[in-house]
Amino acid sequence: MSRDTAVVSRSASAGPAGLRSPVLVAVIDVAEPIGALDCTRSVAPPYTAAWILACRSGRPLGSVQIAVTGTLITASELERELRAQLGAAWAGRPAGEPVTLARASVVVPSNFARPAQLRRSVQRLTELDHPDFEVILVDNRPAGAPAADIPGARVVREPRPGISAARNRGIAAATGEIIAFTDDDVVADRRWLRALGERFARQPELAAVTGLVVPLELETPAQALFEQSGSGLDRSFVPLTFERAGRFTVRRRAPGSERTGSLYETGEFGLGSNMAFRAGALREAGGFDLALGTGTQARAGEDLAMLIELLASGRRIGYEPDAIIQHSHRATMEELERQIRGYGVGLTAMLTAITLRHPRHALGLAAIVPRWLRSLRNPASAKQVHRAEDYPAALGRAELRGMIAGPAAYLRSRRFQRRWPR
To answer: In this structure, is the dihedral angle defined by the CA atoms of residues 247, 250, 193 and 130, taken in order, positive or negative?
Structure first.
């Protein structure tokens, strides 16, 4: 799942901010001959631009935005723009030495609200390039729902509402040494699970690895605005490693660079739709907080709560851009506003949850909240810099209302979960 990023640092390559929908989304591998890009749209209005994820032999180099004035970007124009905008990244990164992959379990929680997308997601998961894995679909509908049969997945039931309960059920059912999580509205790259597994194999000290999340389509204004909202992942195209540097600080390591930031600046840590863990680390942590996440009154935040918990306890986590997931953003403004408000609720619910679990977090948050509050009004801040001038004020207000409601929502959700029959 996605999450709000109000206390997040954002990178300059966050995504197709400012583009007017509809925008053509394409993935182009420059290791193969580059052909013309057909920008024909079957319905009006025509595409205004193309957002391209450029890869070399399946490994992402970066994203490129090209204005569209007709229905075709010629091969020569496309290659020229790719080379110019990617710069030194065009050459790509060398592939690592072959490694042995551990058995993996892929867990997909679902309330079956989007059956067509669910079936598409599971179908793509069955085609993954990995020698030893299983797909576990957790049916999170209420008790009494009809039995589900989704080809390619082992279906288990979890009637307790909420994505955390569903994920914990998946953890209990998993037989893999690595447990990967994704959502029912995504399309996984064929190398997704392999890339996660290879990173674990090359860095045995990692407790978790997250991956790159990019849009599947930008056909509607709401989908384009989501990319400006600050609710997605900071898209780095190089591998990162995070480890605790101090009581409330984290060291971020990238090839050739290193910097230290707040434990609560989580923009590059990852998203719930693309994350994997060592099974032992997840079980040792006690699984996901049942009172957080989609399907609870807290609405979101369970993914970040787990990643922060691992870092705060001295574990290391990694970010692997080669593990690519394409996400279907909400198509309507009504859905987007509801989603953005939910992310606001989830953010402060998550901060409430980790503080109640470990009160020392109150000191760490006290040091960063004043700076974060100032950033809300600063157009050059990490939160605002990718928003177009006409970014709807209603979305910002919805997010803020959600943040205000988050702590109380978490407390209500926790009371509900404690009353749930065991």
So the answer is: negative
30 with 143, same domain: the answer is no
**CA nearest neighbour of 107 among 152, 148, 137:** 137
Task: Please give the structure tokens belonging to residue 422.
Answer: 């065991």
Task: Centre a 10 Å sphere on the Cβ of residue 281 and count the other Cβ atoms it contains.
Answer: 18
Chain-centroid distance of CA 50 in Å reads 22
**Are 54 and 175 in a shared domain?**
no
pTM for this model (two decimals): 0.94
- The distance from CA 393 to its chain's CA centroid, rounded to whole angstroms, is 24
Residue 355 lies in a domain: no
pLDDT(12) > 50:
no
Q: Quote the domain boundaries for residue 146.
A: 104-329
Spatial CA neighbour of 387 closest among 15, 3, 86: 15
**Same domain (yes/no): 72, 209:** no
Are the CB atoms for 316 and 333 separated by under 8 Å?
A: no
Helices (H) and strands (E) in the chain, counts: 10, 16
pLDDT category, 4, cuts 50, 70, 90?
very low
Contacts of residue 283, Cβ cutoff 8 Å, sequence gap at least 6: 171
pLDDT tops 60 at residue 306? yes
Same domain as 142, residue 29? no
Contact 110, 137 (CB under 8 A): yes
d(CA 170, CA 27): 31
DSSP lists the bridge partners of residue 339 as none
CATH number of the domain that residue 185 is part of: 3.90.550.10
- Closest of 213, 249, 229 to residue 344, by C-alpha: 229
Burial class for 379, CB neighbours closer than 10 Å (0-12, 13-18, 19+): exposed
